[in-house]
Amino acid sequence: METDPFSETPNENVDYVIQFKFAGPGIDKNVAEDQLSKLLRALDSVGLRTEIRDNDDTSLFVFVRVKSHRGFVAEVYRSRIKDWLHGIRPAAPEKETQKSLEKEPVTEAERLRLVYHLITLPVGQGGAGITPKIGEYTLVEQIFALHDRKFNSQWLKTWSTTWKVSPEELTNLRDRFGERVAFYFAFLQTYLVFLAFPCIAGTSAALLLPAYSKFFAVVNILWAVVFLEYWKRKEVDLAVAWGVRGCSKLNNIRAAFKFERIDTDPVTGEKVKYFPEWKRLLRQGLIVPFALAASGTLCGFIACVFAIEVFISEVYNGPFKSALVFLPTVLLSGINPILLGFFTTVAKRLTDYENHAIDEAYEAAFTRKIFVLNFITSYTPLFLTSFVYVPFAKVIVPHLDILGLTAQELTDEKQTHTHSFEINPNRLKKQVIYFTVTAQVVNFGLEIVLPYVKRRVFKKVEEFKDSAPSSPALAGSEAEKKFLERVRDESKLEVYDVTSDLREMVMQFGYLTLFSIIWPFTSVSFIVNNWLELRADAIKICVEMQRPVPLRADSIGPWLDSLQFLAWLGSATTSALIYLFADDANFGPGGSPKPLTIAGVMTAIVLSEHIFFAARMLVGIGFDAVESVGLLKERRERFLVRKRYLEESMGIEADEIDTDVITLGDSIKDVGGRGGFWRAGNVAETYGIGADIIRGKLEKKEQ
Amino acid sequence: METDPFSETPNENVDYVIQFKFAGPGIDKNVAEDQLSKLLRALDSVGLRTEIRDNDDTSLFVFVRVKSHRGFVAEVYRSRIKDWLHGIRPAAPEKETQKSLEKEPVTEAERLRLVYHLITLPVGQGGAGITPKIGEYTLVEQIFALHDRKFNSQWLKTWSTTWKVSPEELTNLRDRFGERVAFYFAFLQTYLVFLAFPCIAGTSAALLLPAYSKFFAVVNILWAVVFLEYWKRKEVDLAVAWGVRGCSKLNNIRAAFKFERIDTDPVTGEKVKYFPEWKRLLRQGLIVPFALAASGTLCGFIACVFAIEVFISEVYNGPFKSALVFLPTVLLSGINPILLGFFTTVAKRLTDYENHAIDEAYEAAFTRKIFVLNFITSYTPLFLTSFVYVPFAKVIVPHLDILGLTAQELTDEKQTHTHSFEINPNRLKKQVIYFTVTAQVVNFGLEIVLPYVKRRVFKKVEEFKDSAPSSPALAGSEAEKKFLERVRDESKLEVYDVTSDLREMVMQFGYLTLFSIIWPFTSVSFIVNNWLELRADAIKICVEMQRPVPLRADSIGPWLDSLQFLAWLGSATTSALIYLFADDANFGPGGSPKPLTIAGVMTAIVLSEHIFFAARMLVGIGFDAVESVGLLKERRERFLVRKRYLEESMGIEADEIDTDVITLGDSIKDVGGRGGFWRAGNVAETYGIGADIIRGKLEKKEQ
Predict the structure, then answer these.
(1) Is the ipTM here above 0.90?
(2) Residue A372 contacts B where some CB pair is shorter than 8 Å
(3) pTM
(4) How far is CA A449 from CA A6, A491, A602, B663, in A?
(5) Domain ranges, ordered by start, for chain A
(6) Does B29 touch chain A if contact means CB atoms closer than 8 Å?
(7) Mind listing the pLDDT tens digit for each residue in A492-520?
(8) Which residue ranges traverse the bilayer (chains A, B) (predicted)?
């Protein structure tokens, strides 16, 4: 039976579980045994203690924990020193390890991170070099941490009972799941709060202002600008508060990085894996054909579906129309994900091929591609409607009569294709509503409900094949059985990927900046969705996913650029939309809009773009005027460090110096001397001379 | 008689000369004497030795030098520690002062900088707080260093005899005049070298390609992009090589800064002068009306002159025409400088009023205003011709007949104003040539020749009033008399302002990016001019100006933004110009260009702009692929520092720690224990269990 996710079984002090596969196609018993012993020794060598239990017929679990208290403390201290030396922490940790640990106790996230590094880092860099499937440990299936159910249940309780997630909550989260996850929730929370504004603006615009009101558009874009500028600074604050600022520069070498030759680093003089940058650049060139192919296919497909839809809903009215109208939606929601999935894998392959040496670089490169793909699939339909269908429908639709003829054959009604075409007034708005409400709801279901069902089903399947009787050595207590049961469950869960959640939010933000002018209520739908999302994601992490390895991050990473891009594009499209539809606002985008002159659109775009950048600059200046809390904190800490050193150095009086050997330029030579030009021995004498001159001159004058 | 600027009189070990005014309107004798003694005591208190000589009837010279060798050495050491703590130098100076000074001997620039700080820094910050005319030392006229004629003559010799200024030369320069000046020459040299490319491109374009060739335009803009991206990185390299990277963040408090109240710094806890940021922002708001007024006036004036010119040269042909044609030029070159000068002073006032606390901020704010003013005065005429005159002349010029009528009265020829108007084919090109060749030559004369003449004249005037007989106390050697003579000369020289030289180059770069499409030879004229300029500026510094105080800088500062702006604008205007004139290239911009459709221009601009930014991004990425020398050097140094520390910290084994007091999360508790879940005592045992499981399962399978 399934264990209640919120029951309070302890984790038996296990830090990580390594799933080791010993049987299966092409796995030799001896190889398995060798690798296992190698694995255990490797773990032992970096000060980790191991314990083994069985899982199923093909794999077993290696439980890992820290072996020696002292060793680990030193580990912590070293990592903090390292952070300091890389400028991540402004001040060095206390010289006495003990004091420093009392001052800053080790959070669970920090502990898990360090242990994870002990397991995964290359042997050279103080790790055991164990990376699932990559490298020498081909039989290592996965490495995962175990959920702290007690904390999880508390977490979910508090969040489900409070309206707003407090900063303390976030810090709390960061202490358990690391900065990377915490940053996502921080962003989501900030975004949620900020949404309140466009909600009010949108609602009042919808009620009071004409559709496509310039005023609302300006407010909306300005809001986006302010939000992003604010978040940029908020990020810094959080990074400083969490002591991770600049950690993204720490450059963790990717395990999957294939080097061309071993080379000596010009800086460190150490032997390092080398792969020529120019080659990488060349490989990155492949982005161009990829982008063309992907966007071509996706846009093409969407356009076709679009055409079919228009035809069926507005030209065709033969039999089965009532049924056929659903065809496009079916096609879209059926095939689109497949295409997207396909191209995503290609993108991944491409990024692998680019062979980045550093995790951050890899992720950035991949994220960019993902963004483009999602951008196309999410927004193309709306772009088509607003910039192709509405302006040009009258021109295009008739050509759909090729289809119209076939339609005619199916029916007797002669007027089918003489049937005069009319642009559907509310299509655009309808679409926006579909994408911003329906899609959100569906997606929500897919994210929360579906996996739950899936798990239940799998569980049932599992229960058919009775689990193997554990060998005598493993006969443990009831609690242990329960624990192992739980471990097996968690081993089957998916790995949580914060990127996908971030992507979701970014795309949502896009709808807001690009199209909310069409339907001002957009933000209302989003604020509801996100309030739920925030909680749903918490549940997802606790129940549906393995416990994420607490990695560090000092921002939401490359997604910030995507957000900025969307805000900018929003300024352009919004103005274009207004230019197109504003005048006949009363009967919506439907009625024939004024003839689209390129001049108009271009001017609109040029204007809004430049205004946008100006606005962004100004807002930025405004924010900078008030120094952020984080930067202030940082400056203070850095200052204190400086002060300490300066005071030390002030002590230095130059008595111990043999002055002759030092070259300070001529002016310092023969300082003591009174000969030649420098006659005055002291201030008094100098002043005397001065006074004489003054008197002399003045008397001369008076004569 | 005038002393030969290159004679090798030594500076009597004087570091700085302070000119002190004791007589004049509203100066009381006693006040003067008090201030003088105060001054001398202040200097003495910061370890500076003084000597006094007379200058003229109203002022005397206070000569300043370092008093104690030891004290100064400590000063140097402290300042270097400070640099390290602020991250300007990666590594701390050697603990033993002596060693550190042997390793990095004090350059003349460093010495003069430190002495200057000793004189000028506020009393709180280890200086004597002496700032000319500001604060308590109202009678201090100026503080200036003395030229090292020996070095100067060598400098000019080498530069006038070599084609290219070598990096060593620049470093040499930096050691004498400080980074600020050195950066200007470094920029000029880099720019000069880069100019070779557009020279070739331009010449071949002029000879082979049709006028307004798109190809040349792209090449030209691309060149600008590459140049700027290169320079950005070059700047960093130089800053690192000269050990000043990040020194612009050191934030020197302005002497003229007026504080509202004394406040405690949230960071340092020290009492600091406080002026609310919001107030400053409000005051900065004044930029708007100022910009409007200035641009309005300047543009208006230029437009009028322009109209007059067009009228005289192309409509009017009454009497005196031959003379009248010069009127516009006279007006322009007569009144424009006055207007510009006026607005520049206003801009200065405004910036003063903005009351920036930090030198850098003040300079940035002022530079921005200056740039706008110069932008208008330099480019408006050409913009008028290309975007108003040529496209709309046919429409506008007839209105000039109001003048035409008056003209008619002066003459009998009836056809004067029936005289049909024709657009002057070569006006645009002529103008560009005027601004890029004639103007450069004139300006060159103004910069080099005029001041020389001026000085000669003043010199003569001086010689009429025989200098006062020096009082007995001062009867010095011949050499001394000669020396004082020289000091008096130098005291009369102007203060060298690197900004104005930079501005000149920036505006020149503007002509290149904005208009060289009209006359591809532009860059040829510039390369010649700049080759001379580079040397002329050297002469200027050596002969026409006082020795600049060697200030530090880690870039050419705010001018970089101006350059980027010009490159960007260039991409827009060039495409617009091409759109306007390309087709009828054969008979130049003159013949009636195709009717200007806004759509076309807008499209051209949108396209080129976006292409421009894309190109800039790509070029940037390309450059980043190859790591810059400077950054490499810096990384190496930082690495070495880290290594040292890490090795120290590695020593820490955690034996001295009382493990019980430290909280490392539960998993660390009862590490030794073998009870409960953790039964295996060592790797062997663990492995044993694992092996059993594997065998067990596999046997089960085989059955």
Answers:
(1) no
(2) no
(3) 0.79
(4) 18, 20, 46, 39
(5) 16-146, 167-246+268-419+429-465+495-636
(6) yes
(7) 888 998 999 999 999 999 999 999 999 99
(8) 181-209, 215-231, 286-312, 324-343, 370-390, 432-453, 509-528
